Amino acid sequence: MRNIAIVLILIAVTSPAFADAIDGDWCAESKHLSINGPEITLPSGAVIHGEYRRHEFLYQVPVGDPDAGALIYLQLQGEDNMSLYHLKDGKPVDGESWLRCEPRTTS
Prior knowledge:
By secondary structure, the protein is mainly beta. The chain is 11% helix and 48% strand.
């Protein structure tokens, strides 16, 4: 977890400031995730904890999910836009755009 914190700090130093917060529901194609402080609900339905900052989030993909063990970095790009990156050698790559979506309702 110490390595995750170091990577997050390094990325934060080079990140521009944004309005709002990364918390909320996000959609990309047919995928959905939800961030609530340090807790994230992944597209697989897994609920895990990660490194939360107001405009960014970092987590390690849990066992059982595709890309298990990979580090994923989420960065708020605007009030309704977020980018998801895989971290390779401490650098964000393979950017993917996500948009705010309506919260999922449970029945």
